[in-house]
Amino acid sequence: MSYAYKLNEDVRHQPQGPQGRAAIDPAMIYTIVQCMPIEADGRLRYRIKSKSGNVERVVTEEQLSYFQ
């Protein structure tokens, strides 16, 4: 598997609600700061940092989309 996003790339993160449902909150812009190792479930994970604050989180690739 290869990562779709690269380091320092700006992405849009769509938060998830309870039990994986789409959240009401709008998508926010983050920067990829690290490609995490692939875990046992096979999903690709990234560490991202908020462009508007000092917030970092680890998310799966399906929660991200390209930002233009």
Architecture overview:
The protein is built from no helices and 5 strands. It has strands spanning 10-13, 28-35, 45-50, 56-60, 64-66. The protein has a 5-stranded antiparallel beta sheet, with no helix packed on it. Strand 3 and strand 4 (56-60) form a beta hairpin. The N and C termini lie far apart (24 Å).
Reported for the largest beta sheet, the result is: 5 strands, antiparallel
Read across the widest sheet, the strand sequence of neighbours is 4-3-2-1-5
Succession of helices and strands:
EEEEE
Helix content: under 10%
- Enumerate how many helices there are, as a single number: 0
Structural class computed from helices and strand pairing: mainly beta
Which key terms come to mind for this protein?
single chain, 68 residues, mainly beta, 5-stranded antiparallel sheet
What is the topology?
Blueprint: E1 10-13, E2 28-35, E3 45-50, E4 56-60, E5 64-66
Antiparallel strand pairs: 1-2, 1-5, 2-3, 3-4
